[in-house]
Amino acid sequence: MKLEYTYEQLLEKNKNYLWNPFTQMKTYLQDDPLIIARGEGIKLIDVKGREYYDGYSSLWLNAHGHNHPVLNKAITRQLDQIAHSTLLGSANIPAILLAERLVGITPDRLQKVFYSDSGAEAVEIGLKMAFLYWKYRGRPEKSQFLSMKNSYHGDTIGAVSVGGIDLFHQAFERLLFQTEKVAYPYPYRFQGSIEECVEVSLLELKQKLEEKADQLAGLILEPMVQGAGGMIVMPPGFLKEVEQLCRQYDVLLITDEVATGFGRTGRMFACEHEAIEPDIMTLGKKLTGGYLPVAATLTSNEIYEAFYGDFEEAKTFYHGHSYTGNQLGCAVALANLDLYEQENLIRHVQEVSQVAAQELRQVAELPHVGEVRQLGLMIGIELVQDRISKQSYDWKLGMGAKVCRKARDLGLITRPLDDVVTLMPSLVSTGPELQEMIAIIRQAIIEVTEA
Ligand SMILES: *Cc1c(COP(=O)(O)O)cnc(C)c1O
């Protein structure tokens, strides 16, 4: 591959051949499209040589920075052995070792690991497992799913079915399977106290379970923070209650930790904040430190055993992807987890989140900032037309997008979620780096909203 193309040449090829995901190509191609050439630590460098903070850690993936020598080495070492062999009917060394490792660090109930290549697939697998579990247990009527309004679980059809973001999901409605939905507590948009907000949400959940538990295979949710839904942080106590209700009504609890997992919220997994034990957990994103596409669905021995039997019983889990258990991916995931330990990364996230929280106070005071939400290094800044009335901007104004575009001019890349400006930096970001990133976002908000 020839490497020395000019920006203009690449842009022309981007325009002619490439369709970017979650991107309005018309807008993108008109506005100085960003073409990344390299990464160095927590920064991205584009083809024109401009340097930016990677404020979204390359879509919530990167843990230790880009171009990390230890992770690079883990891949090349594995490459000298083999890049890939299938996990369908055979196994490989890094996939086995990584499975053991994941079982060791996740809640006790989770004892088996099923791999895939993306968070959405991990969710599909979790749903299929839960569905078949009840079938094999002799209760096939428990076949539906309960999920949360405003949730995001990925973009494949099953994951969209349990998702609840109208802007992304409504267009596909007729393709989706039917699900039950309940509200996720969102105190900022609730008339009343946080406690009342929690109470109302729990009551709704309880009523739904009372009415439908006999038909429900599982409840799926994003524990502690709804990510793509706008970084909505769960009030304390809610998750624990949800777990108890699931147990009480015999509905499997599926926690989607694709975004929150691996230290993002200041704990290795968000489930730890409330010491809950899900029946199924989905992992992705930072599982490989942001290097390669590996995802995993973890489950209990009880669910695993429902599938375990003689060949003629036809209880084999007929699901798999070509690259499932990829050796390069699993090898870098193992090195990634070693780094978490060696660098005491969770402690680091806890410390620097405090620095971020302090810096965010100045953002929270701006006249067009409604709520600043944060759990660990998962940060969302909600823009509003008026902070007193909490009146939103017309979404067509694209205020979130405008602020992020301005931030890019000021040296930081991130993406908005509607009118929520997000900051999801690499976990190794230092206090001063976070201060600088937040100062850039603050400046961008001022320049756009007070123009
Ligand atoms: C990103 C995300 C997914 C989807 O993961 P992909 O790897 O993009 O398919 C699923 N669930 C949550 C909570 C996510 O944030």
From TrEMBL:
InterPro entries (UniProt xref): Aminotrans_3, Aminotrans_3_PPA_site, BioA, PyrdxlP-dep_Trfase, PyrdxlP-dep_Trfase_major, PyrdxlP-dep_Trfase_small
Task: Name the UniProt key words of this record, in alphabetical order.
Answer: Aminotransferase, Biotin biosynthesis, Cytoplasm, Pyridoxal phosphate, S-adenosyl-L-methionine, Transferase
Top EC class per UniProt?
A: transferase
Ligand binding (substrate): 152, 285, 320, 415
Residues bearing PTM N6-(pyridoxal phosphate)lysine: 285
Query: Where is the site labelled Participates in the substrate recognition with KAPA and in a stacking interaction with the adenine ring of SAM?
Result: 22
Location relative to the cell? Cytoplasm
Pathway linked to the protein: Cofactor biosynthesis; biotin biosynthesis; 7,8-diaminononanoate from 8-amino-7-oxononanoate (SAM route): step 1/1
Q: Name one GO biological process term.
A: biotin biosynthetic process
The Swiss-Prot or TrEMBL record annotates one GO molecular function as:
adenosylmethionine-8-amino-7-oxononanoate transaminase activity
Q: Which PROSITE patterns match?
A: AA_TRANSFER_CLASS_3 (PS00600)
**Where does this protein chiefly localize?**
cytoplasm
EC number in record: 2.6.1.62
Family per UniProt? Answer: Belongs to the class-III pyridoxal-phosphate-dependent aminotransferase family. BioA subfamily.
Summarize the protein's role.
Catalyzes the transfer of the alpha-amino group from S-adenosyl-L-methionine (SAM) to 7-keto-8-aminopelargonic acid (KAPA) to form 7,8-diaminopelargonic acid (DAPA). It is the only aminotransferase known to utilize SAM as an amino donor.
Query: Quaternary form?
Result: Homodimer.
What this protein is called in its record is Adenosylmethionine-8-amino-7-oxononanoate aminotransferase
- Organism for this UniProt entry: Thermoflavimicrobium daqui
Q: Which gene encodes it?
A: bioA
